[in-house]
Every structure is written in structure tokens, then in C-alpha cells.
Amino acid sequence: MSKPSSRLLLVMGLSTALVGLIVSAVLLVDARLGGPAAGARDFGTASGTGPASSPRTPQVPPEDSSATRARGDEAPRRTGTSEPSSLTLPRLDVRATVKAVGVAADGQIEIPDNPKQVGWYRYSPAPGSPEGSTVIVGHVDSKGRGLGVLLALNNVRAGDRVLVRQKDGGEVKYRVSSRRTIGKRDLAASGAFRREGPAVLTLITCAGPYLADKGGYQNNLVVTAVEAPT
To answer: Greater confidence, 168 or 230?
Structure first.
């Protein structure tokens, strides 16, 4: 059998890239408009949280808005845990480095400027902690910088694997258990930032509708995952 010509390989490669661009564009439109991908496919209930409500850039919960926290003083660490270094969702082809983030001057959680990077909220438990919600945040898109790596959360499914590599070389394995669309103003009270209760990983990004005259995205997409060694 003869080998494919270089021209055929080029066409195949361009076709694959085009399909990827189309899929990304569809997901972004859904995220901005608050269409089916931004709400109709929500599922599950986050472990240890109260009633789910409806997700703007995540706000800091009341107990973390003190001047001490805003200055970036260290929160206590639990024994046997380590800061995250990377986040992977294999089925969604999501791979991102993780940067520790704190509280911005406006009282909201800092988010890395690079949309291909995500931020671990360092006042939340480290991955592998025995209780509480480990919070990782990221952009769905960024003006002048392109699509965000967490845009893919619009296509998340129950049971998807989530892998968090740690700076000490360890790895914590999770499975997605819920996806919720929560109003920006309701996020702090949603249980996403709790430090007690069942140990979970919470991934947060923006969700539509996008209203420029009202500050941008009106909701957050909150995906919860539980530890699952296999």
C-alpha cells in the first residue's frame, strides 16, 4: 500500500484543525449566550453544599475578604497535602499549569492573565486534603488572548476523569460528579468555598449570558469532582 502524499496529509491536518476551531467557536457562543451548553446540561448536586442556585469572575467568600487575607498572608496547610502544579481532564483534552492565586484589590479571586493557565485559590484546601473544597479557577476567554482552557467545561460529563499533579510529585485523581450554573452574586454562598465537609475539587469559570453593559458574564460554571483513585 502506498503512503499518503504530503498534500493529502496536509489536507487532513487542516481539516482536523478546522473541526477543532468550529467546536471551540460553538462552545464559546453557547457560553456567551447562556444557551444549552451553559445551563440545560447541568447535572448532579455538589457534595456537602446547600441548595444550588444559579456562576462573574468568582467572588471571595465573606470570611476571606479581610485585610489580612487580601495581603496574601499564608493560610494553614493540612498535613500530607501539596500545592497543585497541573490540571488535566483527559477526555476534554484539557492540560493546564496551575498558579497559586489569592484575593485581588476588588475583593474577587485573582485569575491568571494567561487563559491557558488556571489558578488554585490558596485559601482553599490543597488537593488531597481530607475535607473541604479545593478551588481552581480559570478564564473561559480573555480579550486579546483568545479562548480559555476551561471553556471545555461546557462539554463536561458525569464521571469524567480529572487529574491534579502536585508539586511534591504526587497526583490526586477525581471523577466529575456535578455541573452547576450559578449566578455571580450567589457564588460565595453556594458552598464552593467551604473548608469543611466532604473533600471535593471545584472548578470555576464564567458562563453566559454575556452582557457588556452589565459587566460581562452574568453566571459562573461550577464543576465539582470527588476523589476516585481508579
So the answer is: 168
Q: What is the mean pLDDT of residues 192-198?
A: 96
Q: Please, which pLDDT band fits residue 21 given cuts at 50, 70 and 90?
A: very low
Percent of the chain surpassing pLDDT 90: 59
pLDDT at 136 over 60: yes
Give the number of other Cβ atoms within 10 Å of residue 46's Cβ: 26
With 0-12 CB in 10 A as exposed, 13-18 as middle and 19+ as buried, what is 194?
buried
CB 143 within 8 A of CB 113: no
Q: Which residues form the domain of 173?
A: 6-227
Nearest 5°: the CA angle 31, 32, 33 is 95
Pair 119, 102: CB distance under 8 Å: no
pLDDT score of 178 = 97
The total of structural domains in the chain comes to 1
Looking up residue 44, the CATH number of its domain turns out to be: 2.40.260.10
Using a 10 angstrom Cβ sphere, with 0-12 exposed, 13-18 middle and 19 or more buried, the burial of residue 14 is exposed
List, in sequence order, every beta strand (DSSP E) within 113-227: 118-121, 133-137, 141-142, 146-147, 161-166, 171-183, 200-211, 216-227
